[in-house]
């Protein structure tokens, strides 16, 4: 008879980076549990069902240029651990019909946790100015930006207002009520709140239409539920002249989720998780899959590597 | 009794510019006849069914940043002609679920014809280099570019090869067989064949992945069936080293549709009709809908206005 020791195979923990278009999904949960990653992972025929622990759970309709997750794979006895490139191609093959893609994968130690290792999250919000009606949004930009009504926005006023969001504040006014979220501290530190001109898909071919793309960028260790969408909506209200820049400061000081003006919520369509900074990984470069390896390197910068005391990569 | 003269209402001819994402449609015909423009136009309650005469019919999966069409609207007796802005908003309202948008509309004389007035068509083909596998195409670029296998392409060789396509040639080798198309002269004059670096959707946020976007641009009075896709495919084969630049010249000289190498057909996903040059319209500016009027002005340049002997606008 085979020994009991032979029947136990070790589990291998992986960190994966992935991107997705959120339009189709009512919640990232849908991607994970039914139509996306989780289902694709079952094709790896693990001994124990595979669970993805996501660094940043995004809301309905929100997109991600780069998100990350860790997962454990326990194979049948005697089977070697999957190579990273095999894991990537197997997951992507089964994800093919879905608007979600694995960018890269790395073996990590069992103590690495994708969510708790995230030192910062950076979100991009895409605004389209110059539309008098939503039908003027280019067909290739649908569900990928927000075109607030009322034409052009007062960008300098928005930039003044954004300064009030920088630093450490109680963001209760900028947190949507959410019974599912555990009660956490409403105090967050915003280290970046920028407004920059940007471009649209092939927009250099229709500059004559007078449309302008702008990007709002926010960076923090973490954000409250719908905090970015409330911050963007309030800044747009400033750009429209519905609020003055100093109203942002007053909203913060109210520390009351009910105090947020209901007209000022930005839709999910313009929001993209751009990158994550993970602690304790060091630069992620691998000769095995050079075209994917860059993602980790960009998401996990020197800042993250220095902050960690140990290296979780294997 | 009402006089017979009162029962006859005059028809009004309009020129409309529109854009669409071709991925969803098996043929633009589908858009026109069943799910798109034609159906939307019936909501205008015309006396006679409305027919769209398209400037450039595009093939399955091909996109358009700007295409144009003319249509006649005959309303019930006593009803005034639709204002352009009313026509735009009515069509767009009914097109809302479809990835197609009316950009602008102009009243024109009854002798104006959208197809016969087109002095030139400009197509853009988007290439993505640096992918070793199609799963590396960003999710936001799916069906909007072509990522040929084999990594980076030899762009200088492609640029050399493109020179052979410029000027007046018999393009029989670059025309796909099509029993539906009337037999027309295979002699065409290519006035532009450029290869330029470009950018992808939000690609400034993932430059680290080593992906490169390029655009091939072709301009001619008209093109043969699938001519642009055959030209692009042949240039990519040169970039991959499968063909030498001088092979393009030899393919042209064969003047035989069967001589085209079957491996070298570019897919429709990367192809965009970028603009049209219409004759006899002059600059199209209107204070009534300033954000849309620009499209016509860009598509109908001074060249077109000079070439025409009459002004068809009303």
From TrEMBL, chains A, B:
Belongs to the tRNA pseudouridine synthase TruA family. It comes from Coturnix japonica (Japanese quail). Its EC number is 5.4.99.12. One of its GO terms (cellular component) is mitochondrion. GO terms for biological process: tRNA pseudouridine synthesis. Residues 161-273 form the Pseudouridine synthase I TruA alpha/beta domain. The gene is PUSL1. This is tRNA pseudouridine synthase. GO terms for molecular function: RNA binding; tRNA pseudouridine(38-40) synthase activity. The keyword Isomerase applies. The keyword tRNA processing applies. It is an enzyme of class 5 (isomerase). Keywords: Isomerase, tRNA processing. HAMAP family: TruA. InterPro entries: PsdUridine_synth_cat_dom_sf, PsdUridine_synth_TruA, PsdUridine_synth_TruA_a/b_dom, PsdUridine_synth_TruA_C, TruA/RsuA/RluB/E/F_N. Pfam families: PseudoU_synth_1. It catalyses: a uridine in tRNA = a pseudouridine in tRNA; uridine(38/39/40) in tRNA = pseudouridine(38/39/40) in tRNA.
């Amino acid at each position: 008879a085979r020994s009991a020791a032979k029947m136990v195979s070790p589990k291998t923990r992986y960190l994966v980076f992935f991107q997705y278009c959120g339009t189709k999904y009512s919640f990232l949960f849908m991607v994970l549990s039914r139509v996306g990653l989780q289902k694709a992972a079952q094709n790896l025929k693990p001994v124990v069902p595979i669970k993805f622990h996501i660094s940043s759970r995004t809301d309905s309709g929100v997109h991600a240029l780069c998100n990350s997750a860790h997962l454990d794979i326990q194979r049948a006895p005697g089977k070697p651990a999957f190579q990273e490139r095999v894991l990537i191609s197997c997951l992507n093959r089964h994800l093919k019909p879905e608007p979600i893609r694995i960018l890269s994968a790395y073996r990590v130690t069992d103590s690495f946790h994708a969510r708790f290792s995230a030192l910062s999250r950076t979100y991009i919000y895409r605004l389209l100015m110059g539309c008098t009606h939503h039908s003027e949004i280019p067909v290739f930009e649908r569900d990928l930006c927000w075109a607030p009504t009322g034409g052009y926005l007062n960008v300098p006023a928005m930039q003044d207002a954004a300064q009030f969001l920088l630093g450490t504040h109680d963001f209760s006014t900028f947190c949507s009520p959410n019974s599912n979220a555990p009660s956490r501290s409403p105090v967050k530190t915003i280290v970046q709140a920028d407004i920059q001109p940007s471009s649209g898909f092939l927009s250099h071919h229709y500059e004559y239409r007078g449309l302008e793309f702008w990007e709002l960028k926010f960076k923090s260790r973490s954000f409250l539920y719908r905090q970015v969408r409330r911050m963007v909506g309030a800044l747009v209200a400033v750009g429209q002249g519905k609020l003055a820049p100093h109203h942002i400061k007053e909203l913060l000081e109210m520390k009351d989720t009910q105090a947020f003006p209901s007209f000022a919520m930005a839709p999910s369509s313009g929001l993209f998780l751009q990158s994550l900074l993970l602690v304790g990984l060091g630069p992620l470069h691998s000769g095995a899959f050079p075209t994917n390896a860059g993602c980790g390197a960009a998401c996990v910068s020197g800042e993250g590597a220095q902050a960690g005391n140990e290296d979780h990569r294997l």
